[in-house]
Write a structure and sequence with these properties.
It is rod-shaped and about 100 Å long. Helix content is 51%, strand content 12%. Strands 1-2 form a two-stranded antiparallel sheet. A two-stranded antiparallel sheet has the order 3-4. Helix 1 runs antiparallel to helix 4. By secondary structure, the chain is α+β, with helices and mostly antiparallel strands. It has one domain.
C-alpha cells in the first residue's frame, strides 16, 4: 500500500504561451497608442480656427505672411522616441511651431487678442473616445495573437 502520491506538472508550455502573450501585448502597445492619438489629431484638425484670408505675423525683427489655413495645415501627430519605452508609448499632437510660430497666440491669447483654444477643447471632447480607441486596438491585436498561439 502506497503512503504518498506524487504529481508532476511540467509548466514549460504554459510559460512559453505566457511569454508569447506578453510579447504580443508589447507589440500591441504602439498601434493602440497611435489609434488614440489619431482620434485626438482628427478632433484638433476640426477645432483649429481657420481664417478666411491670409494674414501677417509680426516677429521680433521681421513680419511673415501666412496663408489661410496655415495653422490647420501645421497640425501633426508624431511618435515620440524620446518619451517612449517598451510598454510606454507617447505620441504628440500639436502644431509645427517653426511653420506657424503664432499658434501659441491663438491657443492661449495675447494681451490684445482673446484666446481661441483648440488643443485642450479637442482633448476634453475626445479623451474618452481616444481611450476607447486605444483599448479596442490593443485587445483586437491581443485577441488575434491569442487565437494564433492556442
Amino acid at each position: 500500500m502506497a503512503n504518498a502520491v506524487t504529481v508532476t506538472f511540467d509548466d514549460a508550455e504554459v510559460q512559453a504561451w505566457l511569454n508569447e502573450l506578453g510579447a504580443a501585448a508589447l507589440d500591441a502597445v504602439r498601434p493602440a497608442a497611435q489609434a488614440g492619438a489619431q482620434v485626438l489629431y482628427d478632433e484638433v484638425k476640426v477645432r483649429v480656427p481657420v481664417s478666411t484670408k491670409g494674414h501677417w505675423f509680426y516677429g521680433t525683427n521681421k513680419k511673415y505672411w501666412f496663408e489661410a489655413g496655415s495653422l490647420r495645415n501645421a497640425i501633426y501627430q508624431v511618435f515620440s522616441q524620446d518619451n517612449s519605452a517598451d510598454a510606454k508609448v507617447t505620441y504628440h499632437v500639436a502644431w509645427n511651431h517653426r511653420k506657424v510660430p503664432y499658434g501659441f497666440m491663438v491657443e492661449f491669447g495675447t494681451a490684445t487678442a482673446r484666446a481661441r483654444p483648440f488643443l485642450r477643447p479637442a482633448f476634453d471632447a475626445k479623451k474618452q473616445a481616444s481611450l476607447d480607441a486605444v483599448e479596442k486596438v490593443f485587445f483586437e491585436r491581443l485577441q488575434a495573437k491569442v487565437q494564433g498561439i492556442q
